[in-house]
Automatic annotation (TrEMBL), chains A, B:
UniProt source species: Novosphingobium olei
A Pfam family the protein falls into: FmdA_AmdA
Domain of life: Bacteria
One GO MF term attached to the UniProt entry: hydrolase activity, acting on carbon-nitrogen (but not peptide) bonds, in linear amides
InterPro entries reported for this sequence: FmdA_AmdA
Descriptive protein name: Formamidase
Length: 363, 363
């Protein structure tokens, strides 16, 4: 096999097809769930580009900044009691012509731009230090500088009561606003917290726990320039995006990121030539696998086994060699620690495999 | 307070004092334990430079490559039954004049150079996937390119029996050597796996579990250019180094890194002006705290609490602000997953605090 294998050449030069626009409206979003029974909001061919709106379910934390007419319609028109069993506003689903169960969707994220320049971080009742903070919930509103690609806090307030209804609209009085994080500028990392295909389950599936379909992976590296591979579970794949973030640390320990609506340009390529058991991420620097579990130790084991799978089955290393390489050159990070959705990811550098094109170029 | 606070100015310009050489010999190493009862191998003043030899306890995995006269003396002369209760060869201890319990030792690691150009990775019986690999142990020998700062595998062999005695000398016959990781070049990350002060305990303390004294933290960022802060528990601190690695991934999942002897140049500065509850790391990019625990979830909680402590007590943020910043801009990584020594670290970027000098410049 030469420097560029046939698989890499084939899909590496996949010319963009049509460009579709998918606005987020009460008719084109589903709030809190994935479902195989949803009618497609859009149908595309392999290779097509999609410019889609992803709306944060935390826009109500600062409606004066994060609402516009389109966002407000979604919050006003979708009955709060139907926003279940999860919490995220998902735009889609997108039906990919020809996609069958077992096929992979290669989703190349090309651009993520803020819809407005504001975001909210909630120290939530599902956060890692909720007990340590005396069961207090608190909102910190951030302003983005899209040119510098940074963010800084504008103000903060204690949330009244308990944050239980997705999309709660909180009109914090000006008098209750407190200054926050004076002098601190943080790097922005725009990305999608939740995206994936419809699970093959005959009921709505919560958007909260990540899984083989993708979902709420919350890896901040799923941004522009990155490519995700999701395994289709139903015909057409039924891919949706949501939970947009402008920044998050590995761990997302307060329970949320800087939650902020994003406009996302991406290309979907249908892949029938390879297979991977869990959501796979390729950035310009790394190949990344994701493990999930009831606790971090279980998530760690799952991430380990999937990195072993990647290096052995896909990159052609012996299992022994792969294990050694995983110990000396693979970095494991904590992706998120929310109860029920604990995640660990494993990163290996692409430069270790200079003969390869993409992660899917089988040895 | 100005751009550079008094603490920063004071110790930032701390001129190097005397340069000491500390060779590793059977008389200047302690194998498997820290102890407050050891006679100092060297006594220094605050600010002095030390050029010390750190010897890997895995040199016996490839004695034809990793032994020299000095290493062999240590392996031959130190009774294997005394290498307990841990496994690492520690050079020291170094007594720092004037250091009292509660003082901090600021150890500035300046240079780490290979003693020879070979290292060993063991897929060990204490590794994360030992059961999944059918309880097999395997050695992979790596060769370093110190100019390119890379490593590649030379050969591998299955370890005969179970690796139980620290410093086992294995003369793998040439005929049993198998090629390993063909075509793979990995980046080197020379660092110390284990270093720390003597715990104030009236018995030898294993080098294996990390703790407040430092010890086996196994963070690959503890390399040249990084500074560690260790809290003295006994007079003089009694600082020792060992467990040298030329590369490791976060997680060190096979149970070992590329274990390879290093010559280490460092400066020790005695600090009586600040305090931190656990081993604190400062790299050119990051401030890093370490949490340890019986499982990853406990280690995660401990790392979270210590990052909260750092941002609140040392950097002057309110606890609320600190928690938000930890969710949106702090990355949590898995440091190691060996039973009994699970570790999680938390990294925050120094550029978020442009007015600060070092991590110890109190607001």
């Amino acid at each position: 096999m030469g420097l560029v294998c046939s698989h890499g050449k084939e899909h590496g030069t996949h010319a963009p097809g049509a460009l579709h626009h998918l606005k987020a409206t009460p008719q084109t979003v589903h709030w809190g769930y994935f479902s195989p029974d949803l009618a497609p909001a859009l149908t595309v061919k392999s290779g097509d580009l999609i410019m889609a709106e992803a709306i944060t379910h935390h826009a109500g934390d600062a409606p004066e900044l994060m609402f516009d007419e389109g966002v407000e319609r979604i919050f006003r028109e979708i009955d709060p009691t139907t926003r279940a069993p999860g919490v995220h506003i998902m735009t889609g689903p997108i039906y990919v012509e020809g996609a069958e169960p077992g096929d992979m969707l290669e989703v190349r994220y090309l651009q993520m731009t803020p819809r407005n320049n504001y975001g909210s971080n909630l120290a939530a009742n599902w956060g890692h230090l909720y007990q340590e903070f005396g069961e207090k919930e608190r909102v910190t509103i951030y302003e983005l500088d899209p040119v510098a690609n940074t963010a800084h806090a504008l103000y903060a307030y204690d949330f009244p009561g308990k944050y239980l209804v997705p999309g709660t609209i909180t009109n914090c009085p000006v008098c209750d606003r407190q200054p926050a994080l004076p002098g601190i500028t943080i790097p922005a990392r725009p990305h999608l917290g939740t995206a994936g295909v419809a699970p093959a389950v005959n009921e709505p599936v919560s958007t909260i726990p990540p899984g083989l379909h993708g979902g709420n992976i919350d890896n901040w590296r799923i941004g522009a320039g990155a490519t995700m591979y999701y395994k289709c579970q139903v015909a057409g794949g039924l891919f949706s995006i949501g939970d947009p973030h402008v920044s998050q640390g590995d761990g997302e320990i307060s329970g949320t990121a800087i939650e902020s609506s994003l406009n996302c340009l991406f290309q979907i390529v249908l892949r029938k030539d390879f297979d991977f058991p869990s959501p796979l991420l390729e950035t310009p620097q790394n190949w990344i696998v994701h493990g999930f579990g009831e606790d971090l130790d279980a998530a760690m084991k799952n991430a380990s086994m999937d990195m072993l799978h990647l290096l052995h089955e896909h990159q052609g290393l012996s299992k022994d060699d792969a294990y050694s390489l995983m110990s000396v050159a693979t970095d494991f990070g904590v992706t998120q620690v929310v109860d029920g959705t604990l995640g660990v990811h494993a990163r290996i550098e692409r430069r270790l495999f200079p003969q390869k094109g993409t992660v899917t170029d089988i040895s």
